[in-house]
Design brief:
The protein has a 7-stranded mixed sheet with strand order 1-3-2-6-7-8-9, sandwiched between helices. A two-stranded antiparallel sheet has the order 4-5. 33% of the residues lie in helices and 17% in strands. The protein has a single domain, classed as Rossmann fold. It is globular. The chain is α/β, with parallel strands linked by helices and 261 residues long. The longest helix is centred in the middle third of the chain and has 22 residues. Helix 3 packs across helix 4.
């Protein structure tokens, strides 16, 4: 295993079929893996020819699907693949200290992945970050603390870790990156310039049985209040009890968002 992976499994990569113009780093949810998420996305419906999928609709995009490490789950009393430990999805703020170690390790690892892709283009706006469920929650921490002006952020069926702490800051607060860096004990300094112009797509199922719809609205509200321009989408009737992309509408929205931004 490459030392640059910080002990994480090697990411699953889907190479572009055309000229490589952008990279998307997309994080899976708890109990999944990069390969599993890529397979599920590849078999999900999009509008277009019968054999079309999200990858064929974005032929110039390289997709990077990192995998989390097995971690001990306090709730389930066993090891499982997750980016960080969490005590309650109904109230993510409960025992939030359990989340710090995993989020710190993930942030360091994922920042290296971002830097590698940015170096290819010498342009951070050609790299998009996102995730689903716990993957969205993890990616949000890097979005807020990393200081990158990215080409976009896409999040589905997730929540904002440490939401109450972030909401306690004044609107348009530039203290949030430093506060999260301190909380997660990260060894980098916040970037002076704002990264709030990163285009952002946040989607959530109104009937999501695993991550409450209200937590998705909270993400949208927090990002909007501190300066992000959020494209908010909501659906009903998706597979996996509402905890997945609505097909084909949800995946069509990703394609449309990325092509526009």
């Amino acid at each position: 295993m490459d030392e640059s992976t910080h002990g994480y499994p090697t990411p699953h990569i889907i190479q572009p079929t055309g000229c490589h113009t952008h990279t998307i780093i997309f994080l899976h949810g708890r109990g999944s893996s990069g390969l599993e998420l890529a397979d599920e996305l590849g078999s999900s419906k999009v509008s277009g020819p019968p054999d079309a999928n999200i990858f064929s609709q974005l032929p110039h995009v390289k997709w990077v699907f990192p995998s989390a490490k097995p971690r001990f789950s306090t709730v389930f009393k066993e090891e499982m693949t997750e980016w960080f430990d969490i005590y309650s999805l109904s109230d993510p703020s409960e025992r939030s200290e359990l989340q710090i170690e995993g989020l710190r390790e993930a942030a360091v690892y994922l920042r290296d992945l971002l830097d590698q892709e940015i170096e290819i283009f010498n342009d951070s706006k050609r790299v998009i970050l996102g995730g689903i469920s716990q993957g969205e929650a993890t990616a949000l921490m890097l979005l807020l603390a990393g200081g990158y002006k990215l080409g976009g952020f896409i999040g589905f069926s997730g929540w904002m870790p440490f939401a109450h702490r972030i909401q306690s800051e004044p609107l348009h607060s530039f203290k949030i990156p430093q506060d999260l860096i301190d909380l997660l004990c990260l060894d980098w300094k916040p970037v002076a310039c704002s990264n709030y112009d990163t285009p952002t797509l946040i989607c959530h199922g109104r009937d999501d049985a695993y991550v409450d719809f209200k937590l998705g609205l909270q993400v949208c509200g927090i990002l909007t209040s501190i300066g992000y321009k959020v494209d908010w989408r909501e659906h009903e009737g998706a597979e996996q009890e509402g905890h997945w992309f609505k097909e084909p509408e949800g995946l069509d929205e990703i394609v449309e968002f990325l092509k526009q931004k």
